[in-house]
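Q: My labmate handed me this sequence with no annotations at all. I'd like to see what the chain might look like in three dimensions before we decide whether it's worth expressing. Could you predict it?
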Amino acid sequence: MRAILIILITLSAGAAKTFYIDPVAGNINNAGDLHHPWDTLEEVFRQRKVLSGGDSLLLFNGHHGSPVIRGNNSLFITISAYKDHRPNCRSVTFDAAKKWQLAEVIISPETSPEYAKTTLVKINRNASEIIVENCIAYSVLDSSPWSQKDWVDKSCSGASIEGSNNTIRYCHFLNIKHGILVESTAEHNLIDHNVIENFAADGMRGIGSYNTFQYNTVKNCYDVDDNHDDGFQSYSYRDGQVDHNYTLSISSYDDYFVNVGNFDLSLKEGARAIDRGSEQDAPSIDIVGTSRPQGAGFDLGAYEFIDLTGVLHEDAEKSSPFSLQNYPNPFNPATMITYSVPRTAFIELSIFNLLGEHIATLVHESQTAGEHAVLFDANQLPSGIYLCKISMDGFEDILKIVLRP
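A: Here is what I predict for the chain of 405 residues:
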C-alpha cells in the first residue's frame, strides 16, 4: 500500500499546469494563474520562470514583446492564444529549445511600439521539435502605401529554420522579403499548408537535406531590387539526377482556370489537366484537402477538379464581381469570409457540403456597394471541404473552404 501511495503522490506532483499571461493586467511577480497572470511572454522567459513538459501558456490580448524561447522538454509545452484572444509579438526566437508548440499568435513589428525590420520567426540550429502553427506573420498588414524603397528598407523575412525536426504549418506570411527559409544545417523539417503572400525575394528556400515542403501557396512577388526572386529556391542532390522536367507556357489562362484575376487556379470543367496526371508518387489529397482522384484519373496541378453541378446554377454568369475570399483557409473552427458588392443589391451567401446539401445561410439581405465580411463558425461541423456560395442578380461565385481537423 505504501508503494502505491508514493506512486500516486509522484504523479500528482508532476501534473501539467496551465499558466496565463496578460500584458494589460498581469505582473511577472504574480503566481501565473487565471486571476493572477504574468505580464508578457518575453518577460516570462527573461525571468526564467520554471516550466515543465506538458504545461500550457495561454496568452491574452496585447503585445508580448520579442520572446526568446529556451528550454529542452521531454513533453511539449504549448503556447497559444486564450479563447477569443489574438495576442501579438514583434518576433519569436527558439534558441537551445526542444518540444515547444506555438499557435494562434500574430507576429509583426507593426504591433510593437517601434517598428524595426527583423526575421519574424527564428528557429536556431540548437532548436528541434518546434511546432509553429496557425500564426499570422507580417511586416505590415497593409503594404499598399509602400514605395519601392519601403519594400527594400522595411520588409521583414518570415521564418528562418537552422535546426532539425521542426514544423511550420497552417501559417500565413504576408508582405515580407523572404517567406520560409530552411537553411543548409536544417534537416527533416516539415513546411506544410502555409501561405506566403506578397514577397520581395524568395517565397521558400530549401537548402538543407531531407526536408518536406507540401501544400504551400506562394503568390505575388514584388520585384523591388536586383535580388534573383524565386517562388522556391533551391534544392540540392548528391548521388542522382533530376529528370522529367517540363516547362509549359500557357497564355489562355481563362480556358483552364476558374478565376485567374482573383488567384483562383482551380480547374474549370473541360480543362486539359483533368485526369491527365500520374498516380505514381501522387499525394492522396490536393492543396485544399480534396481526395484524389475525383474522376477517372489524377488531375495535373495543385487542385483536383470537383464537379459542382447541383450547387452552381447552370444559368449563372461565369464571371464574378465578388472577389470572394476567406482567411484563414484551412481553418478551425472559424474563418472570416470577405467579398465585394459592386452595387446595392440583394445578397445571399450560404455554405454547402460537397453533396450540395445546405449547411448554413450567413447573409440574406440587401447590401450596399463596397467591401463586406462575415464570420463562419464551423465549431459543430466535421472536418472536410465546404463550399461558400454567394449570389446576386444572376451572378454566382463559389469558394472552396477547408475545415481542418
